[in-house]
Amino acid sequence: MKRIGVFVCHCGLNIAETVDVKKVTDVINKFPGVVHVVDYTYMCSDPGQEMIKNAIKDKKLDGVIIAACTPTLHETTFRNAIASAGLNPYQFENANIREQCSWVHKDKKVATEKAIEIIKSMIEKLKLNQSLTPIRIPITKKALVIGGGISGMQAALDMANSGFEVILVEKTSSIGGRMSQLSETFPTLDCASCILTPKTVEVGYHPNIRLLTYSEVDKVEGYLGNFKVRIKRKPAFVNWDKCTGCGLCSEKCPTKVPSEFERDMGDRKAIYIPFPQAVPKKPVIDSQHCIYFKTGKCRLCEKHCPTGAIDYEQHETFMEENVGVIIVATGYDLLSKENIGEYGYGKYKDVIDGLQFERLLSASGPTAGEIKRPSDGKIPKEIVFVQCVGSRDPEHGMPYCSKICCMYTAKHALLYKHAVHEGQAYVFYIDIRSGGKGYEEFVQRAIEDEKIAYLRGKVSRIFKDDREEGKLIVWGVDTLTGKKIEIAADMVVLAMAAIPNTGVKELAKKLKISTDAYGFINEAHPKLRPVETLTAGIFLTGCAQSPKDIPETVAQASGAAARAMTILSKPELEVNPIIAAVDEEICTGCGICVEACAYDARKLNEIKKIAEVNEALCVGCGACISACPSNASIHKNFTKEQILRMIEEVI
Amino acid sequence: MELCYYPGCTLKTTATNFEKPAIASIETLGHKMIELPRWNCCGTVHSLATDDLMHHLAPVRTLIRVLETGKDKVVTLCAMCYNTLKQTNKIILEDAEKRDRINNFLDEEKDYNGNVTVLHLLEFLRDEIGFNEIKNKIKRPLKSLKLAPYYGCLLLRPEGIGIDDIEAPTIMEDFIKSLSGEAIESPFKIECCGSYHTVNNIEPVVERTKMIIDASINRGAEAIVVGCPLCFFNLDYRQKDVKTQYKEFNYIPIFYFTQLLAIALGLDEDICDFGKHFVDPRPLLTNKNLVFGEKKIE
Questions:
Q1: How large is the average pLDDT for residues A505-526?
Q2: Hey, are the CB atoms on A341 and B166 less than 8 Å from each other?
Q3: Among A418, A479, A407, A489, which residue's Cα sits nearest to residue A443?
Q4: Is residue A461 within 8 angstroms of chain B, CB to CB?
């Protein structure tokens, strides 16, 4: 029989106040198999741990019960202590007499009895525990980053600069993401592209980064440390190896279409490089609008290309890559104006969204930085900014705060005043949320120095004026004075809700990671694991998780990279061995466990005709154990016999 | 098709000019509106207080009457009736506790489980007859008649009850187009008409009527189209009070949509009861060559 030692923790008064610890030790002392019982104020403290280690050596213990808090807190602490005393760390059980006992009871007598029962049942389990060793799996020392915005770039650079190979996949033809569309950044008014381009260039030339733009993740298989990814490369219809990026093709192309990069504020050609500083600076042909693809004639770009790079025959290709970790940095989009009926469902040309206004402000934008309204190119003299359009609005399905709008609206209004001195800017807001270094000062500067009229209230309706051509009537309310407000505006800028980028739902399915009710990717723990997903080896950063501004995004990207590198830097991975196993003698190979497994950890061995467990994928959920009709599925250290004996002891 | 029709009080008194052209037009279109043999008040304003179930009894009774005729659909004309019947029906469908309390209270009636579909006639025209079909059947296109639809609140709100998009409805515009009329869009088409303030405090009603009418006239409307007797009253009769306060105010005729349908279908003008209007629409119709009387067409 095992020589078991039981250590009962007081947890200060957390346990000792409701559980009579002395009585517990007295009773447990007489329990068969128990050779040593001791109690102490804090078992997790250094002296507490020393007490355990010494007892293992002195009393020659081969099983340890620690009755304390929940195993989610200190199981690892105690396992390490036990291992350092030379005992197998799986010859240990953590009896929870705090969360499941002292914290939920008031009656000391009842709680004491319950604590004893809990400890006894854990002793019964421990008696049948086997010594386990952690499972070791090899790691592919390469990372995949999905999304080439500031978040993905930062994560890629951090890992690449630490010496790891990185594949950066971006669905558009160039990197830079939303930040490349911005004019200036709050609160310092740094030019966005000036601070961004050094990063895009570094990514473009980094020896450790393989940049795959105009590509998408098509399929993901495998597991932590060993993902197998299929990447779809969309046809650019231009041989990028030959192309020098001279831009002659775009110049000669006769077809103009609204530019996605300019958010429809300007045009692009059918063969185009989205913006001058694009990395890589290579064009793609938009086959939906290209005259050649539509009619079979034109080929002007081909005629003028000095290097013969145009290739109309190019088609979609696929490539397979093995990576150890994946970082998801898919970013955000703005809710379309077409969803907001009260502001005209997007039918008024001079009602634009925040990113469109960024393009109007941008020196490299369609108006070269002059604020000209889209309908007739006039400079607006009365401009209204509306915050929280769609956000913080359960009626529109987005009760969350989009976080960046208060600050960028203040920036917009301020930049507007810098450009149009005689103009009047109004901002409708619900609250101003300007938490951040220098943020509140920035907003105050906009309100006080720039005389921007901040009106606390919502806008109920925007419509065309019937008295004056080209004016938009904005109806709102100032809740501080209780007055109804009517403004005849020349232009309205809506701070639309930030929503997950298109395609994130499908991607999340491929990666087997979960999204929240709004489509943002879920983190493993909102406080303590904010850069990981629940799928081991897949990390997240930036607005893919929730709306956030640039500094926060960059910090999170570095955090995700650092967490990813804790995996990449190890020679191999240690995985918790308390998982499923198969009794090969009993297994009939029926395959029910394969269907029951949600983690793809079960496979049929066609030769042996039995089921197998992929130890790297198994999370120890137990689904296959309850599904197995022949009791061939075993949960290591949670065998049916152990559980039955635990129950027997309690009842 | 025989339609079960619930009129409500107004349609039998002040709004015969809404009901009569409706019944005649639907018949011309090949269906029949059959009035519920026994009906009571719709309950008027739908009560929003969660513990006020008493106000839902009247609509529930009416819906039980509908089932007794063997039908599972009821059509209304009055926007208020439509709203109260449909909102109460929704409560019965979605709130089992309230449903049971109401059923227990109405112990002499059969239990009601929300099986009746409440329709407004505009919905019936759109979804069951189809505006295209109406377009094919009209004899007198309302060409060159510039009509501003006015929805008010009860046809649209709250979400899930209304007959069309809450912020940017188009059902009336589509209806007007099916009669070959020109639909004039005004942002005020979904603003409140002042509602029951008209009973004891006409001031806000006068202001709103003026605002709604001015905005329509400024956009080129020659008449306004409504689907609610209360909106009709506030927009038509209250023009008198607007005029006393604002001398420069211009009158504009108000139509029920059913009147326009009757005219477009070539029915007799008398059926429209234009004598009930404060602002007589007949001069406009004569002007546009749309009333028949002596000079009957065909």
A1: 95
A2: yes
A3: A407
A4: yes
